[in-house]
Design goal:
The protein is built from 19 helices and 15 strands. By secondary structure, the chain is an alpha/beta fold. A 4-stranded mixed sheet has the order 8-9-7-10. Strands 3-12-6 form a 3-stranded antiparallel sheet. It is globular and about 65 Å long.
Length: 499
């Protein structure tokens, strides 16, 4: 654990240095600025981007910044949610020259096993300002002794809820206090089913529920997946025993709820295979409701994403897990032609307000302006349906806390975000990261089984009872027990160290 210990000491040392009054400019004294005489290096940066939009002009604006601050250029490589799982593996297998990409926690073990990820602890001299920004959350980027990547700076609590169109919700005579949905009483989910029934009756051309996330898929909320879904801590992580989530009564009950919605036409017929976000479906006027995890400014965020006022119906408690920290990491890939330069760029990206604003809001004065309240807003004559480039998924970018808040946000929104998880139920395994290197073969086999069954069962596209039986049989045949045993062994050792 030597590398991890050294890095932790480095973070503390940097913090003390800053407290002592060491002044830095926006790029940081250790940003690795290149001599202007050198040929500018081009960083290939894979990032989540809106489907619509002029990425080229955003890219030009970013290059103006990076040339000035780093003598580098950036090649934005936009990837949407619905293409990430198919596009990224193909790009990596083809050895495309990607320097940096976001990687989700559930993909991380496979990326490491394939040798795609560079150990960031070997390049610490280029990321000292980044270490200071991330602070203690840096530990979430470790897999064993390897620093796989850097967590995005965003809210750490992960409750989930249904976002429903406010106009229709109120027209049907509902108010938020009509709903008290909790996993402590699964019959309470009938409240939502009854709402969808009324929506379908009153608005037959509108799908009551759509989007590519739903209850059973959201292990970051209801259970602690401890790095992946193959062996979890149930009951919001309030146990020390690793169990099979897909055999749990909770997963079965979630599947039954979604099965009822699917068979009654409350969800779309292609919901199990369509990867488009519920926010996009709502923005297009196709759905009344979608499921999502949320933060402190959820209603304003969703209004920006969809163009609609919404009502939030909470459907979970608030849990804080390691996956909430490392759910998405920025990593440097082994296809980078100059890994030191890639880390220098990341160091800069976590400290540049202008960069984070550009990739989230688009081109100033075209896609957004700063209004009289000092917040981001649409320019005159532009709205959510006509804007050229607009993301509002700051949680998947390096440092959301540097961004200009969107119009309607509280003035202290980022302080609220940082405090959002203060009252969250911390998983018993918070701070633990599973090292899956010894069970890489089993995990690869398990991932294939998961891809075969998980969506169809979770969205109710198949009868849960027989499908769950086949699903779990194949999981165990693929080595699930071996993975769970290894995870339990590592967790027990980690828990013993905490005492």
């Amino acid at each position: 654990m030597l590398k991890k210990t050294i890095s932790t000491i480095s973070v503390l040392a940097l913090t003390l240095t800053m407290l002592a009054g060491c002044a830095k400019d926006n790029t940081g004294a250790n940003s690795g600025e290149s001599s202007s005489k050198e040929e500018p290096y081009t960083v290939n940066f894979a990032y989540h981007a809106p489907k619509e939009g002029n990425q080229a002009e955003v890219n030009e604006r970013i290059n103006e910044l990076t040339m000035k601050d780093l003598n580098m250029k950036v090649n934005l490589m936009p990837i949407t949610w619905d293409t990430y799982n198919s596009k990224m593996p193909m790009m990596l297998a083809a050895q495309e020259p990607i320097d940096i990409s976001f990687v989700f926690a559930f993909s991380l073990p496979n990326f490491i096993d394939q040798g795609y990820i560079v150990d960031a602890s070997d390049y610490e001299e280029y990321t000292k300002d980044l270490y200071n920004v991330v602070g203690d959350d840096l530990q979430g980027g470790y897999i064993g002794d390897m620093l796989a990547g850097f967590p995005m700076m965003n809210v750490r609590g992960t409750p989930s809820g249904l976002f429903v169109r406010k106009d229709i919700f109120e027209q049907l005579g509902y108010k938020t206090s009509d709903f008290n949905v909790t996993t402590n009483d699964m019959s309470s989910f009938n409240q939502i089913t009854e709402l969808f029934a009324k929506v379908k009756e009153k608005y037959p051309d509108l799908t009551p529920f759509d989007g590519f996330r739903t209850f059973g898929l959201n292990t970051i909320t209801y259970v602690d997946g401890v790095g992946d879904n193959f062996g979890v801590l149930e009951n919001y992580g309030q146990t020390d025993e690793i169990t099979n989530y897909y055999e749990s009564d909770l997963f079965k009950q979630f599947s039954l709820v979604n099965r009822e919605w699917f068979t009654k036409g409350y969800s779309s017929k292609d919901i199990a295979v369509d990867k488009e976000l519920g926010q996009a479906k709502m923005k297009a006027g196709k759905t009344f409701a979608f499921f999502a995890s949320y933060g402190a400014n959820a209603i304003t965020d969703v209004k920006s994403q969809t163009g609609y006022d919404t009502v939030l119906i909470p459907v979970s408690d608030k849990m804080k897990s390691t996956t909430a920290v490392n759910g998405a990491l920025n990593v440097v890939l082994n296809t980078s032609a100059d890994k030191a330069k890639a880390f220098q760029f990341l160091n800069w990206a976590y400290n540049s307000k202008e960069f984070n604003d550009l990739i989230n809001w688009g081109v100033p004065d075209k896609d957004w302006v700063v209004n009289a309240d000092g917040q981001a807003d649409y320019p005159e004559g532009v709205d959510a349906t006509s804007v050229n480039y607009h993301s509002d998924y700051g949680f998947i970018y390096p440092n959301q806390y540097l961004m200009t808040p969107w119009a309607g946000s509280p003035q202290d929104i980022w302080e609220k975000y940082k405090a959002f998880s203060d009252d969250a139920l911390a998983s018993r395994a918070f701070g633990f990261t599973f090292d899956s290197s010894s069970v890489a073969t089993e995990q690869s086999q398990l991932a294939a089984v998961l891809a075969k069954y998980e969506n169809a069962i979770s969205f109710g596209a198949v009868d849960p009872e027989p499908a769950l039986k086949k699903f779990n049989e194949e999981l165990y045949n693929a080595g699930l027990q071996t993975v769970m045993d290894e995870k339990q062994k590592q967790l027990d050792a980690w828990l013993a160290e905490q005492k």
